[in-house]
Protein 1
Amino acid sequence: MSENSPSSTNQFANKNNAWSARFSEPVSELVKRYTASVFFEQRLAPFDIQGSLAHAEMLAHCKVISKPDYEAIEQGLKTILQEIEADQFVWSLDLEDVHLNIEKRLVELVGDAGKRLHTGRSRNDQVATDIRLWLRHEIDQSAALLKSLQQALAQLALQHYDTIMPGFTHLQVAQPVTFGHHVLAYAQMFGRDYERLQDCRKRVNQSPLGAAALAGTTYPIDRERSARHLGFEGVCRNSLDAVSDRDFAIEFCAAVSLVMTHISRFSEELVLWMSPRVGFIQLADRFCTGSSIMPQKKNPDVPELARGKTGRVHGNLMALLTLMKSQPLAYNKDNQEDKEGLFDSADTLRDTLTIFVDLVPGIRVNRDNMRQAALQGFSTATDLADYLVKKGLPFRDAHETVALAVRQCEEQGSDLADLSLAQLQQLHSAIEADVFDVLTLEGSVAARQHVGGTAPEQVKAEAQRLLSGD
Ligand code: ARG
């Protein structure tokens, strides 16, 4: 006999679970705890109620339930939402999950009408709906934070569009760049991360409601109607797929993994730049901690932790991929394990981005130290080679000539710009007095005058373009 039959003797409101009529012995306390999800999924509750409201409205519209029943359900669910928000709702382990806890309370509040809510649906499409609604909300919050982070980086780049620092390859001084240019590299990464989240949102934003347990339902439902009410862009087109796949969550975890990968690269540089041996930047005190034993220490804890948390987020992606791998159609209880890692990735992303949006404007730059570092390591050697090429030398010959000059400088402990014109002309007769224009740091960066180059003018234009939202 079904739960929804008017003649049902199964008084759900008075039982400990929704299926006890079928079983001859109760589960042990450990099994109960093992199989329950109620204590880690309560954040789904407002979305569960939202989904139930849309489902009940649709059932009433399609005349599967009566209007008075719908009104009672609506009233009851609103009361439950208030109870949950006021922290007055009593969650029970016996009722396994958020869905059954809410449903039982609804039956307590509105009687038989409450028992009709589950008509034409199953917890399988219900939970898939809840997760999608919750995840859509998370994506919107984190996408907005990514935009803010990108804007904060563009602001910092604008302040430092002509601040010169060494650019590195292999962590060896390579060529001078501007600090603004360096920072805008991250603005690009977070811009792509934003697009990835928006793209993922399209596939999250599809309604599984109506798929019921796996095969759909025999009631004359209108899936588009409940989907529209919930702001979904469309309905999942196959009921088996709708209740079983969690690829949308995996995609989100992959997108978060990439955001955190970018955050960890940025964090690594902040840690390095803040080391007294480098001394390029200072972070605001509110993102650092001291040492309990070494009074002089100011440690960049926030970037270090962000770097560390990246590992956990990558782990969550692996856990979800492995969870889904080889699962036969359709729903399996394995899927209940989709939540904790997914929640953790979403929380870590939101918290990390919120902190970094505040951290970036607090970065104080030590221009002198950056400039001094750029003056070391022959960072304009490529410029000298390019100069010779422009005077007619083949690049490989120019490269060799400059390598000899670098060796000479190393022997006498000087920089390329310290060589006299006479010394330079000994290296190659094509060298003239204008060579000193390219051997300066300013000349070097200014010469990279094209879209995506490090010339201050380009950096300024790119920062302004990002700030104007183009
Ligand atoms: N708590 C379950 C989950 O998160 C809800 C769906 C339960 N469905 C079932 N057939 N046991 O996946």
Protein 2
Amino acid sequence: MSTPAPIPTPSVRGPVLVCGGAGYIGSHTVRQFEERGVEVVVLDDLSTGHRAAVRAPLEVVELGNRDRLAEVFARVRPAGVVHFAAKCYVGESVTDPARYYRENVLCTWNLLEAMRATETRCIVFSSTCATYGNPVKLPLTEDHPQVPISPYGKTKLHIEHMLQDYAKAYGFRVAAPRYFNAAGAARDGTLGEHHDPETHLIPLVLQVALGMRKEITIFGEDYPTPDGTCIRDYIHVEDLADAHLRALAALQGGASELFVNLGTGTGFSVRQVIETARKVTGHPIPARIAERRPGDPPELVSGGTRAFDVLGWKPRRTALEDIVRDAWNFLRAHPRGFDSGAT
Ligand code: UDP
């Protein structure tokens, strides 16, 4: 499928401080800022991010360190912040919620306070469709009730509320794109997804194709979906990155509160993902059925047109085959992540 022509992205004023810019979605976003000539500074503690994914100036700072944060703000004087840094494993958030409240909620509060102490007012924050909880109607539009079922989703919703309150009380301009399933990799194969441990479906399926795993486990085939496996809305990471640039441009242009879904509006089942990966890789990819994974709703698909209406954003690389192929090209070039592959 051919990729539609881009809708021009409005210009962004730098410098932009990208927290978590060494991570998966952050590094793609940094790359797009750079491609548009916007000055970027990355702030990352490298706990899960990768130095090799960053070419921009990098401040290795923990968001828990308020003194270092204040020093970076005083020196960089950002015209905007894009905030990706967070813990993002649903299962871990259930067994260790303290970590999620500290590293997501408390660290974001530190960041907002560093902004409040200076002139910086615009922030784009990574939120998630996990803030909706179990869907009561599909597709999920932004007005769907937000009743998260995991501590991870709850911490993201707490932060959305903090942002709204800071907007009202202190004149912050805030955007919280709610991602569906981020997937794919840079089309040139130089940036992509590397988590340790890996838990996400597409990279795991591709690791089987590369001979790094014996089989893929399908978590449940008795869901009320056409083939019995869970349906998700996979959104290309480069499309996600583009939405962040648009969101920051909108805030700098005067928007004050933007809460938007970022998905394609089309869902694919676990079986469809595996089938697509078989086609892309030419590998049989053995699959084994297992129990349902706790906390997985049967179907999560984005609905509505708000991101287009308020940001002029439309996903462009939406074919599942393209998404899987980009991820495959990255994995083949970096089988053990950035530190091992040919970067
Ligand atoms: N999944 C699976 N086997 C795996 C990993 C994931 O069947 O080894 C399923 C999971 O249950 C969910 C879908 O694939 O229905 C996407 O899961 P992923 O962890 O990639 O993203 P999530 O939807 O949890 O954000």
